[in-house]
Amino acid sequence: MAEIDGARLLRDLQTLRGIGTYETGVHRPTFSAEDVEARHWFAAQLAEAGLAVEIDGIGNVIGRDPAPGRKLLIGSHLETQDHAGWLDGALGVAYGLEIARSLGGGIDVAAWADEEGHFGSFLGSRSFCGLVTEAEIDRCRNRAGLSLRDALQQAGFADRPRAMVDPARYRGYLEAHIEQGAELEDKALKIGVVTAIVGSRRWRIVFEGEQNHAGTTRMAVRKDAGVALVRFAAAIEDRFPGTASERTVWTTGNIRLEPGAPSIVPGRAEMVFQFRDTDPATLDRLTEALQGLAGEANQGPCRVTLVETGRTAPAAMDDGFQAALEAAAERRAAGQHQRMPSGAGHDAQVLAGRMRAGMLFVPSIGGISHHWAENTPDEDIVLGCRVLADAADALRVEA
Fold first, then answer.
1. Which residues in the chain land under pLDDT 50?
2. In what helix (H) or strand (E) does residue 178 lie, and over which residues does it extend?
3. What is the CATH number of domain 199-312?
4. Which helix (H) or strand (E) holds 330?
5. How many Å apart are CA 192 and CA 339, to the nearest integer?
6. What pLDDT score was predicted for residue 399?
7. By CB neighbour count within 10 A (0-12 exposed, 13-18 middle, 19+ buried), where does 1 fall?
8. Phi and psi of 81, rounded to 5°?
9. Which helix (H) or strand (E) covers residue 135, if one does?
10. Nearest CA to 115 among 134, 91, 89, 95?
11. How far apart are CA 385 and CA 362, in angstroms?
């Protein structure tokens, strides 16, 4: 059994931390100059490790073991959320690189493009799995209005072919990540073996009333879109707990009133809403509950419209991969591991549609993620890589 070099792993992570440093974290949005620099740096490390490397036409960095035989694919992503943490994504690609070096064969490594969704959710892994059309690429823009086509051109990736998966090549896919929650830390555990990854449904909920003067419009005749929105949000909090599972979560992430002035009754309001669960049936029930609430709200003075803006499907992780990760965790951290679902989305849920997949978590200090204060102790980082390497060593030769 090969042993990873923990000091080398930490040096790689610190190098990535230095590309786009912000406070104690990193600001490395997809296809920014910093993200492109990180992709070229990572490609060079994969080549030095003896892998055949390409950066494809969607920005994926893929290192392939040139020896014959089936491979195990290990990956994650390099870009970050804005002004966010240094380990979200980077941990998983650094693990893949270190494991490829240490095991000496049977491992391919990938850094997927735009898992964080600056242009579109899971663009790189979905492209690799044949799920991204040219028309979708044409439509994609980031929050600043930059088109994906222009971003790829600026990055130097536009004229390259997009890599496509050959399922016959792979025994499966492994991904490692910080937990992005505090369950492991709260339970004094070191390793989480992921059982399933949540799916999500995302909505824009629009309320249309009647804009009017705030001083002269009597309360009895108002059609206040802002009030309708607040009542709807409260109704969700009342209705959803009876429909949700124990781990369902829902979030109103943005609220906007128009025209948004103190002396004007809002004529239009909008909220951005999302819910997540690992069970497709629960997601369907929540959708029905939301539609029912909209129907009831439409009996009031304002018109309510639901617009679904996106969804991702939940994905179960492979039982055999879970068992291999659990066995490795027991060898390295006896009694300090558990099986658990992932409340955040990851590229592993996309790859799971094309091959067996498994995922490992290491603790997040204070449960912090998507913030520059995100952190994990060095010893937990190294332990996680050792566990993943042991599992990969077993899985790469599995019949």
1. 399
2. strand 170-178
3. 3.30.70.360
4. helix 319-332
5. 6
6. 47
7. exposed
8. -65, 165
9. helix 134-139
10. 89
11. 9
Q: What was the pLDDT predicted at 1? A: 65
Question: For residues 375 and 177, is the Cβ–Cβ distance under 8 A?
Answer: no
User: Do the first three CATH levels of 6-197+314-395 and 199-312 match, i.e. the same topology?
Assistant: no
Range 136-155 burial, b when 16+ CB lie within 10 A, else e: ebeebbbeeeeebeebbeeb
Q: How far apart are CA 236 and CA 391, in angstroms?
A: 42
Number of DSSP helices (H) and strands (E) in the chain, helices first: 12, 17
Strand pairing class (71-77; 107-112): parallel
Q: To the nearest 10°, the Cα dihedral for 319, 97, 44, 379?
A: 140
d(CA 344, CA 160): 31
Residues 80-117: b if buried by 16+ CB within 10 A, e if exposed:
bbebbbbbbbbbbbbbbbbbbbbbeebbbbbbbbbbbe
Q: At what angle do helices 378-395 and 319-332 cross, to 10 degrees?
A: 130
What is the spatial distance between Cα 192 and Cα 360, in angstroms, rounded to a whole number? Answer: 6
Domain regions of the chain by residue span: 6-197+314-395, 199-312
Angle between helices 33-48 and 90-103 (to 10 degrees): 10
Token pair for residue 169? Answer: 């090549």
Measured between alpha carbons, how far is 201 from 338 in angstroms, rounded to an integer?
A: 27
The predicted structure's pLDDT at residue 397: 84
The CATH code for residues 6-197+314-395 is 3.40.630.10
Distances from the Cα of 204 to the Cα of 169, 252, 273, angstroms: 41, 10, 6
Q: What are phi and psi of 5, to 5 degrees?
A: -100, 100
Q: How far apart are CA 120 and CA 227, in angstroms?
A: 32
Six token digits for residue 250: 């829902």
Task: Name the pTM for this structure.
Answer: 0.90
Tell me if the bond preceding 259 is cis, omega within 30° of 0.
yes
Is 142:43 a contact under the CB 8 Å cutoff? no
